[in-house]
């Protein structure tokens, strides 16, 4: 009996000692910071947390205990190793085991803390869930180091923007998620114009500084609308989720171009670059990353080849622009050698007596196979190669030769690109042209834009001085557009300012300040003793306004379009030293002649027709006979572009229609619809098969009901 009692007492003492030891070990474990203990109740509220853990969070226990775990912690989405996209609330509600789950404490944003959370669900005797029991440890230092390492791997070290790897991953994940949800995603590719020139003339450190400033400006424009990345060099990319409105995208692209074209201060010097933008939109222009990127890339090349400083949407008509560019460059070399390039001359007229005081030389290229190629298409191609110097030299010499056949009081103006102007041999080219033709230097006027001030200002100033010593005149073209600076007028010896056509186009509109700007430029030029020419006057309402504002010289269609030398000489021979203004009473903007085959949908029939004229609000269409005024039509412009319109005029096979929703600019002088419609959506809406573009549609989507008789007669329209 005594032995039994002794053994029971020993066992009880050992149990009490073991419990004390367990608690002591647990306390030491918590105090040493090796790890902490936590527990929650069945409702997910925190009911126990180690004192050291509470101290680590910098909070009072009363602020933590009793609070829902999901209100205190969240899964960190920046964790590069986190594979699950399920929130903490989901994992706790599912009663899953937790194993070193990285969570961030939500109660302190100034000094964030990250924990690795482990735990297992506690189940009662009846199988009911009673909460979690688990451990935690602070991993803030290690996690911040991991984030920094991840950031270095996914972000550009120079600008802090996402790098190509991150942008590819984000675009893949976005397109994958949006595909099933049928959501749109726009992609912009940006390329800096003339950045290489700045880099070469001002040095690579200056180029790096410029790129950093570009990144800052892009952040300011895009804000939280999308993610920006630098792909390398001077290429940038912007992912814009849930954007497919081409009106909004065009406005954003235009804002980007304006912002990035604003002058930069780099190493105490002024630098000016430009920007071209290509835009594609999923799912219309591609479903996969490679597809969408190629579409945006083609649009970007089209924007650059269309004159730079513009944006362009992808369309199915765009081909391999890089290949076309090389073909155009080869053709341009051949054109120069075979005398296919011509100069046409547009008169500059003195308003007080309508006397011609000068002509601006404008280049024309009549390709033997492709016909007329506008300068805005081939000049940028020439500027990307040395061809611009050869073409520029030819233009100056030819203009001087032609001007020698005009009256001695009449000047000739020749446009000079920034690349020409920066060429070391430019002054020699001008000198030789003057000597070989014998023209009075004061009769030659060189038209420059503000881009000549990019780079080495000391060299630019020397070139200005050398040209003035020759006696030629200098004009600042496109004044008032972009970010023209008054400092140019102070430092450069200009003889003339030219008011850009964009101000004239809108000068008669009440909600524009263009008329005031024109007046200010004219007043400024008078104060500085400079001439001023107002460009682009087409109608008498514009003419009356600019003359009232003090315009002494006008250049525009109201006097004459640019004409070849032969016609100029015929007028001079017949005594045509003066020219009377002639044109419409009011300016009608943006109506252009086109020849475009389109579809016209009426009820359940599709007709083929030809669009002849196009503006933002309407069009002239040929090819349908018997269309009553007031008829409602849908124009199929291709690529999912549908335009609802109403017939306002109808005569023979020609109708005039007014659009229900105005078209918008495509960024390169064309027009497009704001939105596009998927052909599958059209089919699902019950549109007849004949109204749909070619494609493979599920039979269940196609209506097979009776068809009505066509109400209009379709006739063939030939080009001409």
How does this structure look, described?
By secondary structure, the chain is of the alpha+beta class. The chain has 5 domains: 1-30; 33-146, Beta-Lactamase (2-Layer Sandwich), CATH 3.30.450.20; 155-318, Reverse transcriptase/Diguanylate cyclase domain (Alpha-Beta Plaits); 332-573, Alpha-Beta Barrel (TIM Barrel); 592-714, Beta Barrel (Thrombin, subunit H). Helix content is 37%, strand content 27%. The relative contact order is 0.06. Residues 1-14 and 688-703 have low confidence and may be disordered.
Please describe the structure with a list of short key phrases separated by commas or semicolons.
720 residues; Alpha-Beta Plaits; 5 domains; alpha+beta; disordered N terminus; single chain; Beta-Lactamase; elongated
The helical percent reads 25-40%
How many beta-strand runs? 33
Model regions low in confidence, pLDDT < 50 over at least 5 residues: 1-14, 688-703
**N- and C-termini, Cα separation:** 127 Å
Q: What's the pLDDT, averaged over the residues?
A: 84
Major sheet details: 8 strands, mixed, barrel
CATH hierarchy class name of the largest domain: Alpha Beta
Number of helical elements: 23
Domain GGDEF: 183-316
Protein name: EAL domain-containing protein
Organism: Aurantiacibacter zhengii
InterPro entries: Biofilm_reg_signaling (IPR052155), EAL_dom (IPR001633), EAL_sf (IPR035919), GGDEF_dom (IPR000160), Nucleotide_cyclase (IPR029787), PAS (IPR000014), PAS-like_dom_sf (IPR035965), PAS_fold (IPR013767)
